[in-house]
Amino acid sequence: MGTSSIRLLISVFAVVLWVAVTMGLALLQVAEGTSLDQLVSQQIVWGPPAAAALLLVIMWAMKWKDVGFNAVRPVSSWRLIWFPMLFVSGFFAAAVFLHAPVPKAILLTVTINTMFVGFSEELAFRGVLWGAARKALPFWGAFFLVTFLFGIVHVLNALLTGQFAAAGVQAFNAMLSGSAFLALRIRTHALLPVMIVHWLWDLSVFILLSGRSGPAEPAAAPLEQFLGALIIVGPMALYGFYLIRNAQVREGWQDDRTTSPDFLTPQKGE
């Protein structure tokens, strides 16, 4: 077994430990049947930062320095976040115009929790796991492995909420958005833009949910939830695949020091 394959196995094990810490601490903090919007709005959730700290220790011990903690290259690739930011702006606008103002204490709590989640999940999947998978597997194999695993861990939310159908939809949502997050990671050669987008995406969604008043609406049927996810988050996945459509972009995927082609400049083969 080669060095890259061994690193991939260690990285998968590290992510398993990350999942155990994230979910274990969450289960200790809240009772079964707690919804995700209640979880992130009522208290600081310690699972994500604790799990991220564990990964940072593992990275230090294993001397992994290629997980994405570097400058965005080229700097102009920051503009690639424009499309997900359209969705984020729309979610915030809906929260402002459709619901009552969110209390400041809840707003602060949700902001902190979603920031922790954005940092922790990106470090685990687009950092540690991608850093190993891209060295051990062909491009598409690594891409779909990371995207699939990122989605499938969201099924474990059912351990908290008790809603297995909804957790399945959340996993599907995560695969769609995760493909866009990974494409941004590849194009920017850095974790910071993806962490910011992930944080603001989650923040806008949970602010929208936290602003609802009155009795809770009955949950939609699983098929309706699935179609809703496809309509809302599907364009994010399409945008992600658009970002990595070009062979020249994919040629530099294994090295964060490689400069990506300019986003607006036509590339050979297009």
Q: What does this protein structure show overall?
A:
- The chain is an all-alpha fold and 270 residues long.
- It has one domain.
- The protein has 11 helices and no strands.
- The longest helix is centred in the middle third of the chain and has 33 residues, at 104-136.
- It is globular.
- The relative contact order is 0.16.
Short description:
Residues 258-270 have low confidence and may be disordered.
Largest sheet, strands/sense/barrel: none
Structural class by helix and strand composition: mainly alpha
SSE arrangement, N to C: HHHHHHHHHHH
* Rg, Å, rounded: 19 Å
Q: Please tell me the total number of domains.
A: 1
Average pLDDT metric = 87
The helicity comes to over 70%
List the helices and strands and how they pair.
Elements (H helix, E strand, L loop, with lengths): L2 H27 L6 H7 L4 H16 L19 H17 L5 H33 L2 H14 L5 H4 L2 H25 L3 H19 L11 H22 L3 H5 L19
Helix pairs in contact: 1-3, 1-5, 3-5, 4-9, 5-6, 5-9, 6-8, 8-9, 8-10
Key phrases:
270 residues; mainly alpha; CPBP family intramembrane metalloprotease; 11 helices; 0% strand; 70% helix; disordered C terminus
